[in-house]
Amino acid sequence: MRNINYFRNKKVTIVGFARSGLTAANLLYDLGAKVSITDNRDNESTRLNTAKLKSKEMFLELGAHSRGIIQNSDFVILSPGVPAQALPVIWAKEFGVRLISEIELAYILCPATIIAVTGSNGKTTTTTLIGKVLEASGRRVWTCGNIGNPFSGEVAKMAQGDYVVLEVSSFQLETIDKFKPKISVILNFSRNHLNWYSNMRDYLNAKARIFLNQEQADYLVLNQADEALRDLGKKAKAKVVFFGRDEGLNSNQSAVIAVGNILEISKEAVLKVFRDFRGVEHRQECVARINNVKFINDSKATTVESAMWALESIPEPIIWIAGGRDKGLDYSLIRGLASRKVRNLILIGEAKDKIKKSLEGALSMSDANSLEDAVSMAFRQAHPGDAVLLSPMCSSYDMFQDYEDRGARFKKAVEELTRGK
Predict the structure, then answer these.
(1) What's the pTM value of the predicted model, to 2 decimals?
(2) Cα–chain center distance at 188
(3) Percent of the chain with pLDDT over 70
(4) Which among 188, 268, 335, 408 has most CB atoms closer than 10 A?
(5) CA-CA distance, 190 to 194, in Å (whole number)?
(6) Which residues of the chain have pLDDT under 50?
């Protein structure tokens, strides 16, 4: 690591005690910081994380936030998903306490070359593919961020000459300060997170922060087909590299080829990685076949566009499970496609009524009280040769810890079916 004394003896408060908050706390403790953690949730997940802290010397409060902790801090570290209107954020601004994201924390310490990937859809698969391309070319690579382990959980293992490929969200980018990737990638831009942002312009501005600190020696990779992103390129100091859609490939794969070109990795080497790639967990992941019914876990699909991608890619008639916490999306965009591809839609979660209203008359729909009920219902409704698809179009936070928890619960429910078939 670099800057290993940066946080020594500093009072640092971490807001949010999920996976990234836990790893940040343990990292900062190792670096000699005086660590406090605050989370307004007090549930099974946060209590389990308590046992994973490296020291009981760290102050931990669950179920509420204390104003005094924030006031007495030198830094406040925000975990992904902590909203701008959260009390600790408001208090930090009021007291003039430096407020940074978990990726900014890790960036301060990171000696590796950073490639950062953002976009409305396709981040996880693209980030994974870039990491595999770098590995195949003989580089030492860490693939993390919103995929796999948090950046702060891996940074202590990194050395100069390594590469880190990060999946980053607009939420994380809101509170960066000096964060500067060598290569930034913005895959696409579409309607998303309007439960968080007041309008599309604010959402785009948050995405654009990925190249805020880049200089002429850095690279910004943008989607040529996306008008909003083409315009962003005019504002960048970095070298702008546009990608299109190579014949026989999707746009995300074309973005990977563009990154490979920058790093002088041949297209042939990249295509070999594509041929060997077996996909990402929770992204169009084939879980099982039961009585000739295929079960597909696409829990990572939290937008209308990503669900459309899944529906279009599945040739079989579909029993579709969707729903969760609404992000201000327009579900009517999927009406035509769903009416052609879906035998029945089973809805769960807080957004079920909004989705039902948007798709009323386009296809058959029913409700389930839980994901497990939805899986059982889907299996009863499916015919041999059908596919049961979990592709929610929504965030997971109404019923689950995160999209990975949702996907794991889906797979467990499918496994239960195999025992009872």
Answers:
(1) 0.79
(2) 14
(3) 97
(4) 188
(5) 11
(6) 192-195
User: Between β-strands 293-297 and 285-290, what pairing exists: parallel, antiparallel or unpaired?
Assistant: antiparallel
User: In sequence order, what are the beta bridge partners of 118?
Assistant: 186
SS (H, E, C) the chain: CCCCCCCCCCEEEEECCCHHHHHHHHHHHHCCCEEEEEECCCCHHHHHHHCCCCCCCCEEEECCCCHHHHHCCCEEEECCCCCCCCHHHHHHHHHCCEEEEHHHHHHHHCCCEEEEEECCCCHHHHHHHHHHHHHHCCCCEEEEECCCCCHHHHHHHCCCCCEEEEECCHHHHHCCCCCCCCEEEECCCCCCCCCCCCCHHHHHHHHHHHHCCCCCCCEEEEECCCHHHHHHHHHCCCEEEEECCCCCCCHHHHHHHHHHHHCCCCHHHHHHHHHHCCCECCECEEEEEECCEEEEECCCCCCHHHHHHHHHHCCCCEEEEECCECCCCCHHHHHHHHHHHEEEEEECCCCHHHHHHHHCCCCCEEECCCHHHHHHHHHHHCCCCCEEEECCCCECCCCCCCHHHHHHHHHHHHHHHHHHC
Tell me how far the alpha carbon of residue 341 is from its chain's centroid.
27
Residue at 77: amino acid letter = I
Amino acid residing at 108: I
